[in-house]
Write a structure and sequence with these properties.
mainly alpha; Arc Repressor Mutant, subunit A; two-stranded antiparallel sheet
Length: about 190
């Protein structure tokens, strides 16, 4: 176990390996420059390249309520989101702040820190998030069957005549290929998400 009198130094400065060996020395534990630069590069890689490839986690109910506010208002501060949340249910400002910080870490929102007050943006559109949630529900509860999902949705809540007409148009559009633009945009969203 390393104590305050131990430093971590590279095995050899000529080696490129980040292998470290403990060396007794007076003073605090010091990480070599190689290690610091490696961590910096790794963080940049994860932030810029790897993170967009990762699947965005499924938002909780509280996170979805914040996302709904952001979709409604557009990019907003914590205070603006908190004011809208307060209309439905009493919520402490610090709760909204903490949830939005967690959502940033999870990749559900982006935070613009260029001004004194941070501005939060949803990472995905409302439609993309809804597709992700439906795809997840369809996989988990219906074994990947879209027909079972639709049948259960229609059985659980009576659809209006306008909704049924829209469903018929979507089905007919899918049969004759006239809905190719929707299929292409769905593929793009699926490619971004998967």
């Amino acid at each position: 176990m390393l104590g305050p009198e131990i430093s971590l130094l590279p095995v050899s400065e000529t080696q490129y390996s980040p292998v470290l060996r403990p060396v007794r020395a007076a003073g605090p534990i010091v990480l070599p420059e190689l290690r610091r630069s490696s961590l910096t590069f790794t963080k940049m890689f994860v932030d810029l390249i790897a993170t967009p490839m990762l699947k965005t986690p499924r938002p909780t109910d509280a996170e979805l309520s914040i996302l709904r506010v952001l979709w409604q208002l557009g990019p907003s501060t914590v205070r603006q989101v908190h004011e809208v949340l307060m209309r439905d249910r009493p919520t402490a400002y610090t709760t909204a702040l903490k949830l939005m910080q967690i959502m940033t870490e999870k990749g559900l929102v982006r935070r613009d820190e260029s001004d004194r007050t941070h501005i939060y943006h949803p990472r995905l559109s409302q439609e993309q998030t809804q597709r992700q949630l439906i795809r997840d529900l369809m996989d988990r509860a219906f074994g990947g069957s879209s027909s079972k999902l639709v049948l259960q949705a229609l059985a659980s809540k009576r659809a209006s005549s306008d909704e049924l007409a829209e469903i018929r148009r979507m089905i007919e559009g899918g049969r004759d290929g006239s809905n190719d633009a929707d299929k292409d945009s769905d593929r793009e969203v699926r490619d971004e998400r998967d």
